[in-house]
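B., you asked whether I could sanity-check this one before it goes into the benchmark set. Here's the sequence:
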Amino acid sequence: MPESSLARRTAISAPPKVGRTGTEKVNAPKRRGRPPLARNASGEHVPDDIRGAVARLKRERIVASAVELFYRQGYGRTTLEQVADAMDVTKPFIYAHFPSKADLLAEICSRAIRHANEVLNRILLEEGSHGERLSRIFQEFLTAVLDNQAHAVIYSREETELRQKDRDAINNLRRSFDRKLVALLQDGVAVDEFSIDDIPLTAIAIGGLVGWAPVWYRSSGRLSKIEATERLSALVLNMVKAKRPSVRRHKKDAGT
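And here's what the prediction gave me:
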């Protein structure tokens, strides 16, 4: 039988090594360093940032499908096969981004508090009075929660389904947010911009306004999303008895 072209190529590309004991088998050298770059249909290299963007897009598709199913029929009654079917993909597509259904639930439940910490850390470094920064933190956090109401509902309903390590990670993020919010309120009191009798309780109340918003807010209701966030933000500022910094008023008056 004639030798196959694959066998001929193999024989040509990897000739046997001859030693003192005769012909010895030579193992193929192991690849080292970075894996080969991905290429598009034209054979051109695909930059890492594009590959990263594609991977994020795929993860978002998976999360969106899982959120819809978890919200509609519950976490326990939803399988990864159903998530895959809803996306018209196979389960290995999901496993490439989320090793298990539990990892998918953890991603959904942790998004709001991770975003809240990112918002808080960013705005704390921005310019503005304590009241202005508190208002921006509250409004951005609340807007993100209302934009993802299903995530918040799933978390409140399925928290007990989270693995212990995932619950601990989320609780650590919540405690970090609470500590930094308390520090902002304390600083506002220290410079006589806020007047608060019980700072820790006030921080809990502010968090509660955000936490309960997905329960009562409806896009078809009396208030638009912008109106709801602005009015609740005004309530927060009234809660801390925020004052307008006199220094900023003087600067404004001097410029007119």
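One thing to flag: Residues 58 and 97 are 8 Å apart (CA to CA). Otherwise nothing jumped out at me.
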